[in-house]
Amino acid sequence: MLNFPVPYPGELIYSTVARAGIREGIISPKELLDDVYGNRNVIATLDLPNQLSRITRWLPSGYSVEVIAYCHTLFPLYAPFIPEERRKRCLAWMAGESRGAVHLAMGVPASIVKVPGHVRYCPGCLKEQQRIFGEYFWKREWQIAGVDCCEKHGELIHTAITRPLVDQHRYHDASPDTCPLFPQKPPRNESEMVLTQVRQLLEQRPATSPTYEQWSSHYYRLAQQSGFIRGRTHIDHAAIAESVSARWATSFLRRYGLGIDQNSNYCWLRAIFRKHRKSFSYLQHIIVHHALMPECWSITDVIESVRELPLHLPPEPSEPTGEAKHGLTSDQHDWIKMLVDQPPKKARVAAPALYARLYRYDRLWLKQVNQAQPRTQVLKRKPRVDWRQRDRHYLTKLREILRFLRADPRGPRHSQTYLLKQLGKLSTLEKKLDRLPRTRRLLARYTESVPEYQVRRLRNAWWELKNEFQHPPRWRLIRIAGLSETRLTDQARDYLHGLEENQEDTNDQRNQGQQPG
């Protein structure tokens, strides 16, 4: 695309693609996908899109995948709070095809903080965009949970476009029809506080993510600095809950699924001060820090300080020392006695505490002893299914189905899924197709591709119109076939050209025959 727009500051790349469609005058969603990505199956994703490497082809050289991800998606909201290896993997997925893996890896579907139900906008900001840039676009900060307002103009307005998007392949542009300029309510105090920190997250540049261990250490230190430690090491969760509840309105917390139940051991506020085994949402981090830190705190400063905390590497298994060098300990004697009567796995179930002590202090010895035990012979079961017989059965049945389908030239596309459905038990056959080699070969031979299906539809349309027209016009052929010029594949287009050329040759021969000798 020669006229692909450059993203505006703070604009979602989703919005940029939508503007590209408007500039080119493209109405069909699939045609826009074809022009931008060269792939009609791309899902139009608002927050964490993929196929960014294809978009970089149409932008100036400074726009790498990483730059687009950090400056024109919501990736920076999640990146600091996931492990570094996962952050890099998510960037790689966003560059190519992810099939929803980015959202899953970042914990978006499982998070108790849900994304807004509709695409939102600020009428006041849209007026400024129209004055400065001459057009509307979607800003990143409008689509973030916890940010319900613009501090200059007031509360955000909901569009009729729902999230997740119902039209998976359509890029909705910000236009006067989509975004009427309604009056806005005054901004809420809590939303303004969140917006201040969210903007800092959105402006951060690529950096290494802290580990779960570093986040665990940070929250323990935060409790210490705030005076919420009981005795020597115990965190006073009740006092922390009171402090957070005093700083944030209960209605605000409940709106985002972050209500605080002090009687529950599984409350998110308790979990964030325990050992981190999963990622927490940016909103959870902001709420806790705003309640426990001074007024002028900064989320980016917090992330930087967490990144600088010492890494506690897991201890490497050491060689047996002391008593273990000269003789066996009592635990080792007990373990050997147990292995006389039972295999290691059963012994481990029978004496979990003994196994845990040995695993912690004598891991190498335990591994060597367990591996030295004779393995129990596993009897091979007789297979429940005779796959050769089943292959013959499905082969015969598939041949009958194919004969029946060939007798009627109409009907849906003979895709592999369609043919397997005719056989019955679609899911089972798809999973076990590698055990049915003859059936698989027949399927591969007679499965109809999309271009072949289009050619069949055009052929049927030609025979249908042949009774009414000596030379059926092109537009009628396409309409009767249920196709369109934009959806025609190259093979179908060549077939259609062939029909037209044959008609022209027939006309030429007829005209030559009518000339006087």
Automatic annotation (TrEMBL):
Residues 4-154 form the TniQ domain. InterPro entries: TniQ, TnsD_C. It holds the Pfam family TniQ. Residues 198-293, 304-443 form the Transposon Tn7 transposition protein TnsD C-terminal domain. It comes from the Bacteria. This is Tn7-like transposition protein D. It comes from Marinobacter persicus. The lineage of its organism: Bacteria, Pseudomonadati, Pseudomonadota, Gammaproteobacteria, Pseudomonadales.
